[in-house]
What we know:
By secondary structure, this protein is α/β, with parallel strands linked by helices. Helices cover 39% and strands 19% of the residues. The structure holds calcium ion. Calcium ion binds at residues 199, 201, 225-226, 252.
Amino acid sequence: MAVTAVRTYVLQAPLEHPFAFSQPGWVTRRAAMVVELEDDAGRFGYGECLLNGLEPPEIARATVEAALADLVRGADPLDRAVLWERMYNLTRDFGMKGAVVAAVSAVDIALWDLAGQMLGVSVARLLGGRFRDRVRAYATGFYRRADTDRAALVEEARAHRAAGFTAMKVKIGFGPADDVATLTAIREAVGPDVLLMADANHAYNVATARRLIRDLDPLDLLWLEEPIAPEDLDGYRELKALGPRLWIAAGENEYTRHGFWPWVAARAVDVLQPDLTAAGGFTGLRDIVALATAAGLLVNPHVWGTAIGLAASLQLLATLPPVPISRGAFEPLLEFDRSVHPFRQELVVQPIRAEAGVVRIPDGPGLGITVDRAALRRLAGAG
Length: 383
Ligand code: CA
């Protein structure tokens, strides 16, 4: 078995209403970078890489085409872990993090998809089996348009609840007073039984985050995500040492076992949030999960992309061991992006839906989805 072709697709669609989070700038489009591998039996394997809100997809595409494709073409998908090491090593001196590792991740995911199809099993079973066949989803949203006010954010929370979600994550980072007022209003609107999380997208320094944590703690949040810069490991340790009820979470801007190892060794956060489509694909995440589990830390992956990345993340979520296994163990949650995305579900024949706030994990071969190749090519402008 051999990979005969490596293709990349960049998909982009403008947003009618640009939205913002805590960082400067406006998200004016949704984009995706999808990798398609074809093998000598005519099968297609798919992977997607994470594109952060303002990230141009062309960086990851160039990495795949100019650096990774020659390694993968002609290779056996069953050698995926060997290929991961070779791809990482090839790009190490100009990569190690960011879009370059995201490109490696997309190729790795596509290799696992092909390997699963070759063997007739899902990626989760290829990884060692499923701890769960469904996962509770939390609604991600609460991005802000130019005209968004607090009432609109409360209305959005009610809409997620009405759609069946019992967990949701609110974008904060607009100043501690605004953050506390927003979360107070949302908590009052949805009641005490909804799992609430907050995500600051590294809006603050340690001093401000310390005050924010004290003010937020009475609101019974499950976790506070990225309160400070993703490089500030010591700052995270300091915040965690405050001993808040809420969990400190971070990791969507960290990559591979090399990047996560210091965070695990320092036990700098309660919840690590590697993104499968950025931090190293299935091969890379397997290492990160092993490190985290050895330290007794929770892993709850970051997810933000199309149905291809979502399906891949579901395969990973199926395999995450409870830490520890017990009746009272925390079950990982699926981040389910509910913000506007013109083609999120168009790339697959069967859209991935949450029903009553729960998503079923497909068990078909590979990623367990059928990619709509015609839609992919049309949306990428490839004819
Ligand atoms: Ca986040």
